[in-house]
Amino acid sequence: MTREEEKKFDTVVEYSVATEAELYLVKYIVPGSWTEIIDDVIYARTGYHSFEQWAEEEGLYMAD
What we know:
This protein has 64 residues and is mainly alpha-helical. 67% of the residues lie in helices and 0% in strands. The protein starts with a helix and ends in a 6-residue tail after the last helix. The mean pLDDT is 93.
């Protein structure tokens, strides 16, 4: 997992979109990168098509 993916993962967990266990479960069932997995979970739980769209709509900002 890249640093950017770690930040996205942590943000999704922090804002209760999904738990760590749920994210890991999806990762091991569905092929793809962490970015794709996170985007899929975001879509399934919120209807937004990507992490970036969700973060923008919710007023979240990813700090470097």
